[in-house]
Structure formats: C-alpha cells, structure tokens
Design goal:
Layout: H1 25-29, H2 45-54, H3 68-77, H4 92-99, H5 104-107, H6 116-123, H7 140-149, H8 164-173, H9 176-179, H10 188-197, H11 212-221, H12 236-246
Helix pairs in contact: 2-3, 3-4, 4-6, 6-7, 7-8, 8-10, 10-11, 11-12
Length: about 260
C-alpha cells in the first residue's frame, strides 16, 4: 500500500486534521495544498514533502516544528542562511538533511556527528583532504563511503582497515604500485580482487594462496614464465587451466 492509498488525514499526534481551522486554509482555494495529498500537518512525509514543494515560502517558519519530519523536509526548501541553526537538531534525520545543504566550511564541523547516517551524508559531500579524519571513523559504513570518495593517493592509509568490505573497496581503487601489498589480506574476496587486478608478472607471490579460487585466477592470468608451479596444483580446476595454458590450448584472451 502506498501513501496514495491511505484515506486518513491525521496529524503527527494522531488527531484528525481540520482544514477549516488551518491558518493556511486560503491556500486550499488556490490549490497550494490538498487533503490526503499535500499538507504540512499530515503525519505522512510524502504529503509534507509535496506541501513544501508547492509552498517553499513557508519552509523557514517551520524549522522549529515539533515533528521531526516537518523540520527534516522544511530544511530542504528553506533559504540556505536558515539551515545552519539546525546543525545540532536532536533528530538525526533532520541533521542528515542539514548535511546535504551546508556549505563546506560548516559541513566540516559535522564530521564527528554522533549518528552514522549523518556522517555518511557528510562523507558523501566532502572531498580530498577534508575526508582524512573520517578514514578512521568508528563505523565501517562511513569508512566504506570514504574509501569510495578519497583520491587514489590516500587509499594506502586504508589498506589495513579492520573491515573486509572497506579493504575490498580499497583493493578495487588503489594504485597498482600499492596493490601487491594487499596480496596477503586475510579475506579471500580481497585477495581474489587483487589477483584480478595485479599485473601478470606480479602474480607469482600469490601462487600458493590458501584459496583455490584465488589460485585459479592466478593460473589464468600469471605470466607464462611463472606458470609451472600451478601445473601440479592440488585442485583439478587450477591444474586444468594451468596445463591448458602451457599446452597452448587456452589463450589468455579466451579466459574470463
């Protein structure tokens, strides 16, 4: 069921909404609000959102509304000079909306926000060196966003992140001159990605990887002069690809 299917008009406290007593009743006549569709008093966010889309001139005066959804949506439409006063709002949804609009000099002050979703919003807008303090954020999801945005040259500082998902993102983006340092990562998925990206003449270090899937990728990509140890690999699939390449039956261009 979507909000269009909801045929009740209740405010955030669960009380019926009375358009006749609303101070914006004059806007109903000009179709700038509509029950069940666009109403600032309604408890449903979609209806509040539409109200402010139709009435941006009213956004600023609703920044102190007791209902967090109203504040969070109003701050998206209010003039920018009103936005900073909600940087310390008690609700994280409101602060996330604030973080999406603040200029850089003020956004920097929100890097330490107590809520991870707010910090993700911050990290999604900052760039380059401004992200450096967030590379050690206590929450992995924030660090993951940072790993996706920092310049390539900053990624070596995140190669040893405690979370495998963060290291996997690092392995996807880090420069080739650093990638070999991740060949001994404890996580199989990270090593697999390393094996897929390393230059063929750098893969010899991964011939004895503990995971056969990693060795399979190594056998399919390694430079010919390093191929022999994989011909006698204990796993049949690895042996087959190595022997096929040695016999010239499998060309590197034919490999996945």
């Amino acid at each position: 069921m979507t909000f269009h299917d909801i045929d009740e008009s209740l405010d955030w406290l669960g009380r019926p909404i009375d358009c006749a007593s609303c101070r914006f009743a004059d806007r109903l006549a000009t179709q700038r609000c509509q029950p069940l569709k666009a109403c600032v008093h309604d408890r449903y966010a979609k209806r509040i959102q539409r109200f402010f889309q139709w009435n941006e001139d009213l956004a600023a005066e609703h920044l102190d509304h007791p209902y967090f959804e109203v504040r969070a949506i109003a701050v998206r439409h209010a003039p920018l000079f009103h936005v900073p006063r909600l940087m310390d709002d008690l609700d994280e949804t409101v602060r996330s909306s604030v973080a999406r609009r603040l200029p850089r000099r003020l956004l920097l002050k929100m890097r330490g926000d107590p809520d991870r979703e707010v910090r993700i919003s911050v990290a999604s807008r900052l760039e380059d060196g401004d992200l450096a303090p967030m590379m050690r954020d206590p929450d992995y999801s924030v660090r993951l966003r940072v790993a996706r945005r920092v310049p390539e040259g900053m990624l070596p500082a995140m190669m040893r992140d405690e979370d495998a998902e963060v290291r996997l993102e690092v392995a996807r983006r880090i420069g080739l001159e650093w990638l070999a340092s991740m060949a001994w990562d404890e996580n199989q998925r990270v090593r697999l990605h390393v094996a897929q990206r390393l230059c063929p003449d750098k893969l010899a270090a991964m011939i004895n990887d503990a995971d056969w899937c990693v060795r399979y990728v190594v056998a399919s990509r390694i430079a010919d002069e390093y191929l022999d140890p994989l011909i006698d690999d204990p796993v049949e699939e690895v042996r087959e690809i190595a022997r096929g390449r040695r016999a010239g039956l499998v060309l590197q261009d034919d490999l996945p």
